[in-house]
Amino acid sequence: MSGPRPPRWAAYLLEKFVNPRFLEDIQGNLEELFARRVHEAGATRARCEYALAAIRHLTPYFLKRTPDPYHSSLNTGMLKNHFISAWRHFRKNIQFTLLNVVGLSTGLVCALLIYLWVTDELAFDKFHEKDSRLYQLMIHEKGGDRLVTSEGTGGILKEFLPADMPEVEMVVCTTPAAWFQKFSLSRENTTVGASGNFVGPDYFRAFSFPLVRGSAQSALADKNSVVISEQMARRLFGSPQQAMNRLVEWKWQAFSRKCQVTGVFRDLPANSSEQADLLIPLSAWDEILPQSNMPNTASGPFHNYVVLRPDADVHLLEQKLAGYAKKRFNDANSTLFLRKYSDGYLHGKYENGARSGGRIEYVRLFSAIAAFILLIACINFMNLSTAKASVRVREVGVKKALGASRLTLICQFLGESILMSFITLVIALGIVWLLLPRFNLITGKQLTLQPDTQLVAALLAMMLVTGLLAGSYPALYLSRFNPALTLKGKLMHVVGDLWVRKGLVVFQFAVSVIFIISVVVVYKQIDYVQSKNPGYERANIVYFEMEGRAAAQRDAFLERLRTLPGVANASSIQQKIILPAFLPATGVRWDGKNQKDEIRFYQMPVNYGLTETLGIRMIAGRSFSKDFGSDTASVVLNETAIRRMGITDPVGKQIMIGGRARNIVGVARDFHFNSFHEEIKPFIFRLSPDETMLATVKIRPGEVPATLAKIRAFYRDFNPGYAFDYQFLDYDYQVQYASEQLVAQLARYFAALAILISCLGLFGLAAFTAERRRKEIGVRKVLGATTGSVVAMLSREFLMLVSVAIAIACPLAWWLTERWLGQFAYHIQTGAGIFAGAALAMTVITLATISFQSVRAALANPTQSLKSE
Length: 869
Fold this sequence. Notes:
Elements: H1 8-17, H2 20-41, H3 43-56, H4 60-63, H5 76-92, H6 94-122, E1 134-143, E2 146-150, H7 157-164, E3 168-174, E4 183-187, E5 190-194, E6 196-199, H8 203-206, E7 211-213, E8 225-229, H9 230-237, H10 240-243, E9 247-252, E10 255-265, E11 278-281, H11 285-288, E12 303-308, H12 314-322, H13 324-329, E13 334-340, E14 350-351, E15 354-355, H14 360-387, H15 389-401, H16 406-443, H17 453-479, H18 483-486, H19 495-531, E16 541-545, H20 548-552, H21 554-562, E17 567-573, E18 588-589, E19 602-606, H22 610-614, E20 618-621, E21 634-638, H23 639-645, E22 654-657, E23 660-668, E24 683-687, E25 694-699, H24 704-718, E26 727-728, H25 729-735, H26 738-772, H27 774-782, H28 787-821, H29 832-859, H30 862-866
Parallel strand pairs: 6-11, 8-10, 19-24, 21-23
Antiparallel strand pairs: 1-2, 1-12, 1-13, 3-12, 4-5, 4-9, 7-10, 8-11, 9-10, 14-15, 16-25, 16-26, 17-25, 18-22, 20-23, 21-24, 22-23
């Protein structure tokens, strides 16, 4: 139409809302009237009349859309036809189907396993009814120019906070579980080991740990009562019913008490940070360490959990807490704050007073891995579907010639991909069910495939997302073919489509290269922390708590322990040498100290012979010895402490600890009492045998099982009525890197699967490329091309794509691995060899994947491919 045109918005309304059966007639009539009115009344008048006429046609009669049995893609007959067509297509192209089934099911297996793991991690500690109001009281303390964040707060806060803060409903105070390696729990002639803790009376009101027997309000009210788990009740009494109101005796070190069982709680779930078999009223702790002996400060050794009132303003309460330590305790170096209790598991890491990650980093990492692996599997489907477009070109042409719209074809092809996704999801569920026991063993979890609402919704979402993502590009690509050309068997070769396909292949292999490099770096770092000397001997070292007579007669017990066959040495220490449960403290003074520099020191009471037992070397002076009577006022410092203090020739000099003078008798070589994630901190060994509770025993190599049996028998004879439970120092060392070892194991499996999926896609593309160029290969061979030159020709394109992928992946892998290694204060250096090795490995994998198809095509008889010519 030349000249004036009708208003576009009115034409758009007609096209958008009027039934297609009437649209052509209405538009034709209105355009004829518009042309006539332009000549009669002018363009402006004609446009107004056209707009009014268009609006008048927006009536229910013209808007009513009746089903079109020939063009509707959603009626039952067409859906059935699409399903039959898809099934026939899968059966006819068996290689295409198998490649996609293996690739998509592998990707879905990875996604499902990671989904189960991530869901469990995110649900940790979130099952408590008061989760939205349950917080843990935390503290920032100044240490030099930095802030040290800890969970340790003062026990007196349980009394002050409810009175001073109207937002607080209750405060539950507990002792740190790390203080207690174990309790011994006895009934008549039966003694068992139990993990336990001292907790406040409102413990069961704050935390949702159901009591199967007893009352949450009164179970912990009396210091002569205890609450035990269902499992412990069965071990001691046969059932929770029989355990109620019975007498048991708990023992810890030299302390013991006969108590009445006033409650039995359901065994604590695996996704709970709180784990115990025995809960003792906190009031009983006062007899072990009276509150009057504890300083009334904001900081302290206890854990305080706060339940807020339903209408409390958390932000207002935190503002009050920020200055509470200074106001209440005149402590300007400490700042109290709240952390949501259920956030502690995932967000437990702080750096200079700011939250800096924790296990949430691994949740994000594995979520990204699942997304990338599933995306790689979807890319396979896209590439294979578009590469086989020539097989379906006539099908598309015929359907379009018979009136099928592009929307109909898009729905058909998306339906095929969703059907494929459904089939692979069913296969993936079966594989996950088989692999779940092994996966639980690796991750240390108890994951199950329970068909709850959340899991079903997740499975449906995975199926639809995978189907739509995998089928979107092929559907758009195949449905746009020109029917006139497709009926002749011709394809529209668009340069953009080729680049999209190549880009997807590059993406797949770039991700695979990143996986290879990351796995190598993680394994090298794990090997580094395993092989590097931590500064002490960790092999064949066992420790256990001394209780009862062993704690009361410590020297006699250790002396007899050293005489046992197979025991190389024995001593005692207050806590584990690795990851001590206490935080470094200030209060150390020396000549020349800068009064503004508050250096924090770890201090550990030890017994004679501890450094010799652990193999900690002295670089100056000596260790503690009974030959020197003054050693009870002596200390041994590590190298870092001396360096931070700025003391030269430290042996023989004095320092003040807690207002008491101490003589430096030796300097120990630095050792890693914390993990390699942290720099070595200042450490002080203080001779105080009466404060030690852990017997530390070095066993001669090759005699561990026999010697342990002798130690167990000796312990029971020396200390009747107490359970003997021990741990290896090497086990604790490994626990420090449990997360890294989990990452290493899972990354290895997922990297292998990502490479497998990528290679499946590459194998299929190589097969279809060889088929597409079959006649070209025949011509080249007739003209004298050798088998090697044909193989090189077919391989060159894929090797170039892999080379581009390597070039893109290496910088990204370097950035990712350097960021991960940055979590370690001591780590390996990522040299060029790692990247070169990964590139070589990827090249070899690529050649191995495409070589079969390339050689097969090169060896084919050229006369077979040229017959049609």
